[in-house]
Amino acid sequence: MILSIVAYGAPVLRKLSKPIEADYPDLAKFLEDMWETMYSSNGVGLAAPQVNKDIRLFVVDSEQIFENMDEEEKITYNDRPGIKKVFINAQVESIQGEEWAYNEGCLSIPKIREDIMRGESVTITYLDENFKPYRSTFSGITARVILHEYDHIEGKLFIDYLKPLRKKMLQGKLNDISKGKVKVDYKMSFAK
Length: 192
Known about the structure:
alpha+beta, Peptide Deformylase, 5 helices
């Protein structure tokens, strides 16, 4: 089932998400819905707060980014072919390397894309869909997508990295998004 993505302005996007246990109700169905929602909206990651659930869960598929790159561009990134993973109760341990800019967008903040600086790699602990624990280091585009989705479960948005003046310049567009004055080709709900 395709879930509705909540727009900028929804309180859940600013909440610190709660950890879940293995007996979380209908988890397998929820994960299936998360993947379906992400793909139907052409996303490469989706966090539970974006579908109005304040739980520490997100999904990432950076493989599709590499599938859509030309061969020359693929060489730029050391994390090809990417990953397709579920992250439950994730905790970032450290962010390493030089910060680099990449043009990010967010399904909850449609029609706004900005260059955001993030570290080259991230070391993170998490559980998979079977609650098997992992401690992994990811780099490149994959690290960026993970950090973007991780921010969601921490109540943070990519626009929080912008300089105050740039954010002020975008405020009108952000207000329009929160009021539903934006056209998207996926299911979305807006704060009233």
